[in-house]
Design brief:
The protein has 10 helices and 7 strands. It is 55% helix and 12% strand. With 204 residues, the protein is an alpha+beta fold. Strands 5-7-6 form a 3-stranded antiparallel beta sheet. A two-stranded antiparallel sheet has the order 1-2. Strands 3-4 form a two-stranded antiparallel ribbon.
């Protein structure tokens, strides 16, 4: 994992620093004294936390400027580096994708109980953990649907439609088609926009 990402996450793993970052997330600039007053913290403590956030490149210091986006007050003022937060979000997403790709790398058929033919289908359609496209041929589509049901979904769990969409979107953007196929081929059952896995004996 990127050391810079770990450093940023560690910097945010403190209640006071999270409160400071939350206040700066309003888009306004604050001096040490203004932050201390707003958050009921000692000025020395605020200065320490700001240094930690600055070292992690989460805030920067700049001269306070008058205007509607500023808080009045003299002295250096601190601002949240929103672009850094965006890069942290992107890095976390990349970590999740790497983990998902590791979990969904297709082992040999002997290790999974899948046939060699099924493995060939999955290797043709699952690329870097995502579906390149949904198979048009039903026989191949069933192989992909079984893979999704076995890999991404858990038995004895209920999935609201929004949650199921989020899971399926990590595989392919056409979540509506995947949902419909999962239900039509008895991999999942639907009741008032809540989905659950069917018993494996019912799967086509």
């Amino acid at each position: 994992m990127d050391p810079g990402l770990l450093n940023s996450l560690k910097a945010l793993a403190d209640p006071s620093r999270l409160r400071i970052a939350g206040l700066l997330a309003t888009g306004r600039r604050y001096t040490v004294e203004q932050l201390a007053s707003s958050l009921d913290l000692a000025s020395a403590s605020v200065a320490h936390h700001l240094k930690r956030l600055a070292d992690a490149e989460l805030v920067d210091v700049r001269p306070a400027k008058p205007g509607p986006a500023s808080v009045s007050g003299a002295g250096p003022a601190y601002a949240l580096r929103r672009e850094r937060l965006a890069s942290i979000g992107a890095a976390l997403h990349a970590v999740e994708l790497e983990g998902r790709e590791a979990r969904t790398d297709l082992p040999s058929s002997g290790a999974t109980g899948r046939s060699v033919e099924d493995d060939k289908v999955l290797r043709a359609f699952v690329v870097d953990g995502r579906l390149d496209h949904i198979p048009a041929q039903e026989k191949k589509r069933l192989v992909v649907l079984r893979f999704l049901a076995e890999t991404d979904l858990e038995a004895d769990r209920q999935y609201p439609e929004k949650e199921l969409n989020a899971i399926l979107a990590l595989r392919h953007p056409d979540v509506a088609s995947l949902r419909r196929y999962l239900v039509d081929h008895h991999f999942m059952a639907r009741d008032a926009s809540v989905y659950r896995l069917c018993p494996t004996d019912d799967w086509q």
